[in-house]
Amino acid sequence: MATITSFSSNSNVYSDNLYSYLDNPPELLRNSYELVQINTLNICSLPVPEKSFDWKDNQNTFQRLIHLADLPDKWDGYSAPKFSRHQINRAIEIFQSIQDYSKEFKIDWKKIEPFIAPSSNGSILFEWSGKRFDLRNLEIYVPLEIKQSLEYLKTDIGLNHDIEGEFQASQISDLLDWLVKI
Amino acid sequence: MSDPHQTKPEDRLLRWLHPGQFNWEENRPTSAAFKDPEMSIDILSMTTVPGSYERAKKLGKNAVASFSYQQVIDLGLEVKHDPIEGNDAHALVLGKKTNSISKKLASSCQVEVYPPENISK
């Protein structure tokens, strides 16, 4: 049976918790899902193979976060552990805080959207670097263990200077202030 | 298994990349690929880029980056030759990879094999 795993980050259809959302989808989506099931059963009884997530072309922050759950143990070819639901939920909360910040200060989402990458030590990287951020770079790591602190790395390009440390989820706006406000 | 290799400053070290760790828009690896406290690499003088890439592909990885042993030493890390079955060139980069160190490795490494087009795993 097909599984619903994809949502638009702009649709505001997800709740605080991705998995509670999957357990209790809103009516419109539930109806659509049932419709897909009926059509599938009527047309073909063979299971539809799931298409693997496109890590190359799909740059959408939310999509990349939820598809971290697809990666198996040792997904990097070495010894990287599997990402847990708790860890991904924690990362989604950070993502929502960034979206809230974007709305509150009317900053175009495309200008502040982080790049998400799975780290080989099991943490989740939020990266603001490269062409869009030529003065300051910011990296945030959501660690493997829920009891571990969130970490940041601030890089001032002009001064060639790094500052790293730990932070609370409630302090994300301070880091974004540093990144975008000159 | 080969005898332990004495790493030299001019040695280059190869690291495989998962496509999710590669920023495709900017064609560069991210710090996410260089975080392990015991980071597996291949010593290039004991293998070849194509040879390492073939081993990477068998495990579903499709890009290879390299950096110099001297860079590793300059960052306060060390390299331990750690041959494993089927790969005498295997070694470990030991030492805590602070976020700053990971970023420096990512920004200074050279991509030897870019991920091919139309790969999504």
Count helical runs of chain B: 3
Percent of residues in beta strands of chain A: 15-25%
What multimeric state do the chains show?
heterodimer
Would you list the SSEs of chain A in sequence order as H and E? Answer: HHHHHEEEEEH
Give the termini separation of chain B. 32 Å
Number of strands of chain A: 5
Structural domain tally of chain B: 1
Radius of gyration of chain A: 18 Å
Distance between the terminal alpha carbons of chain A, to the nearest Å?
51 Å
Report the order of strands and helices of chain B: EEEEHEHEEHE
Low-confidence stretches of chain A: 1-17, 21-49
Major sheet of chain A, described briefly? 5 strands, antiparallel
Helix share, percent of chain B: 10-25%
Rg value of chain B: 14 Å
Account of the 3D structure:
The complex is a heterodimer of chains A (182) and B (121). With 182 residues, chain A is α+β, with helices and mostly antiparallel strands. Chain A folds into two domains: 37 residues, no CATH class; 128 residues, no CATH class. Chain A is 34% helix and 16% strand. In chain A, strands 1-2-3-4-5 form a five-stranded antiparallel sheet. Chain B has 121 residues and is of the alpha+beta class. Chain B has one domain. Helix content of chain B is 21%, strand content 29%. In chain B, the strands form two sheets. In chain B, strands 6-7-4-1-5-8 form a six-stranded antiparallel sheet. Chain B has a two-stranded antiparallel ribbon with strand order 2-3. The longest helix of chain B is centred in the middle third of the chain and has 10 residues. The radius of gyration of chain B is 14 Å and the shape is globular. Chain B starts with 11 loop residues before the first strand and ends in an 8-residue tail after the last strand. Classes of the chains: A alpha+beta (182), B alpha+beta (121). Chains A and B meet through strand 1, strand 3 and strand 4 of A and strand 2 and helix 3 of B.
